[in-house]
Structures are given as structure tokens and as C-alpha cells.
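DATA SHEET
Item: assembly model
Revision: 1
Owner: S.N.
Input lines:
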Amino acid sequence: MSKIADKRAAILSAALDIFAENGFHGSPTSLISEKAGVGTGTIYRYFQSKDDLIRELHLELDGKLQAAIFADYREEVPLRQRFDNLYENLLRYFIDNPRECRFLEQFYNSPYGIAKRRARKENPGEKEACFARLFDEARQRQAFKDLPEEMLVSLSIGPMLYAVRDHLAGLVAIEDRMVPLIVEACWDAVARRD
Amino acid sequence: MSKIADKRAAILSAALDIFAENGFHGSPTSLISEKAGVGTGTIYRYFQSKDDLIRELHLELDGKLQAAIFADYREEVPLRQRFDNLYENLLRYFIDNPRECRFLEQFYNSPYGIAKRRARKENPGEKEACFARLFDEARQRQAFKDLPEEMLVSLSIGPMLYAVRDHLAGLVAIEDRMVPLIVEACWDAVARRD
Amino acid sequence: MSKIADKRAAILSAALDIFAENGFHGSPTSLISEKAGVGTGTIYRYFQSKDDLIRELHLELDGKLQAAIFADYREEVPLRQRFDNLYENLLRYFIDNPRECRFLEQFYNSPYGIAKRRARKENPGEKEACFARLFDEARQRQAFKDLPEEMLVSLSIGPMLYAVRDHLAGLVAIEDRMVPLIVEACWDAVARRD
Amino acid sequence: MSKIADKRAAILSAALDIFAENGFHGSPTSLISEKAGVGTGTIYRYFQSKDDLIRELHLELDGKLQAAIFADYREEVPLRQRFDNLYENLLRYFIDNPRECRFLEQFYNSPYGIAKRRARKENPGEKEACFARLFDEARQRQAFKDLPEEMLVSLSIGPMLYAVRDHLAGLVAIEDRMVPLIVEACWDAVARRD
DNA sequence: AATGAATGAGTTTTCATTCAT
DNA sequence: GATGAATGAAAACTCATTCAT
């Protein structure tokens, strides 16, 4: 790891801490540079602006998140098993990485994130495609409710993300035994009842 | 409607517009007063500070939201009917009032809102109690999954709020025919499968 | 006393209280009108501006002060007796009227007061003339130090005003037995030593 | 002198000028920064707030003042000589440094200064102790009037400070030959008459 | 390349004054 | 005459960004 990468990484890590704690607007760049152990000007050698730093941080975290979710993904296993695998990975990643979760939550609720998601919808990546295939297959098998694919994604991910949000806010406690039940809730939300 | 209520209402409405659009921090009070058609100082005749304005706006909207949800609520109808009634009202309110939805989403994700929700958990109001009774009854009848009440609330409300969030972001379109299906998704997320 | 005089007097009294407590700049006119029990606009029916209110209040208090000092003044008694009489009256007035003292102290240290005193020097009133005669007589009799009259006034009044200032600030306590000693200090400051 | 000291000193000097002229409340920070030739934000790099700037400026000036007063002080010379030395130094310092005098006058009449003086009374520094010893010694020798030490300080300093105040206001002119007479007035104010 | 002092536009808030009622 | 709601200019202070070193 080069010196350059070190500084960049230090800035991103400090930014993550502080954004997760105080939000984008409650986080002066001076605080970030201080926590990162670099000069205030140094941020601007690695990032064009604070906004750019936020977007780059998102890219970084989004990559890690996808890697975590798809770490042990296998297309060939049965549908339900694939679903459970993805959602459990997602849930565990957020529980284990609260800073990342808070940042991403914030990001996707901000103008930055809304634009990003719109762009991604137009131009989906490999992982999104994988997700889409899963939901498409389920729909074709009549396993899911008769709703558009994007709606099914929202509905199935909602239970988990709300549970995590309240867990991180200290309003509920997700214990280990609850993990499968939460994943089940995600499936049940979109599964067709017989 | 008196003159006094007019100004206050104009400020609250302008603030709602602008907060929903730009977030709390992206909304200078000068923009709010301009949009409300009042002087910059006038905001401070009705609200002690910008923070106070945010909190008062929340109170206002929270009251309206609760009124909308419980508009036609009847304790005596069957459990599932009560559930469907509440969740459909909630969904329709947010679809019909996107500014309110965005504001509340933001509020409950901010330090203000997290504190508020903690306080409410300690000291629940009448409506919360009503909600709690519903979930308690369902659990006693073994209708819901074996999870703490708060977790069930998070899980059941998540599908809808995520669907609405994406709808308001323009990523999916909630059509009228989907409303019962979304409500069903909320129920299914927490219902016990036989 | 007419209604009109009542309101005016109420405003002046409230202003005195608040100026003495908080200083000119720490005293919003709204606070003054509230304490006076009148509308915020009413002040501007009796006074052209806040500055004007301050100047008028000064005039009022200055009149009262002079009346108090000269209440029992008699030109025909011996010099020293006249001096003691004036200075004791002054000291007692300030001890008994701390608000007035604080206001006047402030006033004479402000741009308003400095201009006022310059004007008065150019164009002395009856009481100033009386004072001047006293000091003039003393100098002619070689009773006072060889200094200009105004300087003698400053030197002789300084001990008392500093003692009162510190008394009102709570740093020293002027007890009754000290009054003659303080007056004596004023005399001694300017008296020629033999 | 480093660059950093330059800016700080420029701000303090500009602030002194403007405070002395217009008072604390009549001196916007924007005026200070403009006069100092720095940006508006720069003040806040060196001082936490305007209040802090005022307090720091006081500390600076108070230090200089004490240094000037005690520049050639010697404990071993006779009492009267020590007194004359201190008071003449004080007088000359104020005549030579009118801005400093006006600032300090204002400061000690403001809430800042009153608190400061109370604190100093509780917890006197080295110079105050020196002053106290002088007055104590004088009282034990029956040289001074039978009054508490603090009162003697007020009475003895009053003549000079009033004379200086009126001198700086342009109402009297202190000429060089008057200096010993003014110092004598200070002594006479508190000295016991035989 | 890295720094961090300096900047000034932009933000919240106050308050003397006005004017419609 | 009296009111007090409304005003907006002006104040203190913040912080993303620049640039000389």
C-alpha cells in the first residue's frame, strides 16, 4: 500500500466516522482532516470537493457492501436459498458495520443518493442484474406477488432496513436468533400466499 | 382564519416545501421567509429558532398524520381489518402528501427525530397504545412471528415506507391497484406462516 | 397628573430600571415597553428614538440630582460648610438611588454624555455657575491647590464617585459613619496643605 | 515577530482603536477586521468569540499597565515615595496611552470587568498584594484615614482617574506641571490630617 | 506533495422602527 | 392616541475552499 493510498484511505475512514456520527452537514472538512491526521488542504488533493468526497466514499462502501453480500453467492442453488443467502449477508453486514449502514442510509436519502439510484436504474451493474434475475425468476415461477420487479425489491428490503435502522438507533435489539426470522419476513413480504 | 394564523401557516407551509426539497441544512431561513412572503425577522416572531420551527412543524404534521391514519378506525372490527385499515390509510396519506412524507422521513432520521422516538417509546401516547394493543393481540393469538413487539412494528412498516420512498424518488410508481398488495406485504412480513 | 404624563413617566421609569441593569445596548426597547406596560410603538409617540429617550431620561435625572444636591444649599454659610453640604448630598443621593447613579455613570461615559458635558462647559447653567463660584472663591482664598477650576472639580469629585462605583459593584460597603470621611477625602484632595 | 503574531497583534490593535472610540457594542467585528486588514473570519482563528477578544485584549493591556506602573518600583524606599512613584507612573501611562485608558475604563465598568474585579479581590495577584502592603503599612502607621483598605484605594485613585477621564474627553488639559499636584491630590484624599 | 493560515460568502438571529388597525 | 405585528438592515459566527510556503 503506497503512501498516497494511505492518506486517501485515512481521509475516507475519518469521513465515514464523522458523517455517520453527525451527518453530512454537521461534519466540517476541518474535523475530517484533523481526525485523518492530515492538513486541511490535503483533502483537496485527493478529492475535488466535499461533495466529491461523499460520492467517492459512497462508491467505496457500495463496493464493499456488494462484495459482502455476494461473497458466497452461487447461482446454481435453489431460489429461496439464494434469497436467504443474500439477505442474511446484507443484514449481518449492517449489524457488523453500523457506520457504513448509517452513511449509506443517509446517502440514499440525500439528493446525491437519489440521483445515483436513478442513474443505476437506467444503467444497472452486474450485481443489480444478478438481483434482477433472482426476482425475475421468482416472478415467472409465480413465487412472488404480482407487482413490478422494483416494487418487489423495495418491499422485500424494507423490513430488514427498518429493523436495522431501529436497531442502530437503539430502539430495538436484533439478537442473533432473530436473524433468520427477519430474513423470513423479507421473503414473506413479497412471497405469494397459497 | 385569523391574520395571525395565516402568517404562521404560511411559514410552516413554505418550510415544509423547502425542507422536503433540500433537507434541513440546505434550507436557509431566508429562503423560507421569502417563499412564505414574510420578512426574515417574522419567522422569529412565531418560532424561537430554526430548530424550534422544525420541531413545531413535526408536531403539526405528526398530528395530521395520526388523524389521517385513525380517521375511520374502529376497535371492534376483526384484527386483520383493523390492520389493513391503518396501513392503507398510512400509505394513501403519504402518496397524497409527498412533502409531508419526505419531511417526516428526514425528521425521524435526524437527531431531533431519534430523540423524539426514544421519548415516545418511554412515554407512549394514545395512538401508540392503540397500535401496541393491535400487535399485542396478534401475538397472543399466535398470528405474528415470535419477535418483540417493536421489531414486528419495524418489520411490518418497512415494506410500505420503502415502497413509498422509492415511489417519491420516482424509481417506482405506486398505482392504485397496488395499494392492497402493498398492505398485504406489510401483513405478510410479520404474519406467522402455517 | 394627566394620562399622558403617566405613560411618559412609566416609560422613563422602566427605561431607568433596565438601562441601569443591562446598559444601553443590552436593553431592547421592547423590554422597556413591556416593563412600562405600554405597546412597543407607544415609546415612539413620546420619544423620537431610543437615543432621544436616553437623552430625555438624562435630563430628567440630572434635574432631580441637582435638586437633591442643592435642596438645602445656602450661599451665605462658610465655604467649607457649603462644600460639605453639596458633597454629602451628592453622596447620599447616589447611595439612596443606585439606579440613577448607574445610569448617569454610564451616560457620562458614553458619546452622548461626553458631548453633553462639552456643551455644558460652553454654556453653563445656574447650578454649574454656583459650583464655579464656590471653587473660584476657594481658589482666591488660596484654600485650594493651584490648578484650573475644572481640574479641581474632577479631583474633588473623583474620590466620592469611585467609592460609590465600587460600593454599587459590591466591592466595598459604604457605611453611614464613613460618609463624613468620604466627604472629607473630597475636600482634602483639592485643599492646599499648609 | 512571526507572521502569526502579526495578525493577532493587528486585530488586537484595531479592536483597541475601535472599542476605545465606539464602545464594545458600537464596534462590529466586521469593522475590526477591516481596520486590521484581515478577513472577517480571521478574527475567529485567534479568538473564540467577540467576548473572548475583549477579555484577551484586557489581559494584554492589564499586563502592560502593571508593567508600566511597577517599572521602577522599589519596596525599600519610604512609603510616600513608593506611593508617588506608583501614582505618577499610572497617570503618565494613561496620558500617554489614551486608547488603553478608555478601553480599561469601559472594561471595568462592564459586566466583564466587574466580575473580573470581584475575582481579583478573592484571589489577588502579586501586584495587588504589593499595593495592599503599601496601604496596610500606611494604615498601621496611622498615615491614612480610618477606613477599610479597599475604600482607601477607591478614594485615592478616584481623583486621578476622574482627572484623566476629563482630560481624555477634552474637558480639561493635564499639563506636565500638574502631574505632581494630581498625585498629591490622590495622597491627600486618603492621608490623615494632623 | 503537503500544509494550514487566511478568506469571505453565507447562515442564523436580533431589535429599532414603522404603520395598518 | 395606542397598539403590537411586521419588517429588514445589521450583527456574530461558520466553514468549504484556496494558495503561499
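QC remark: Chain B has ten helices and no strands.
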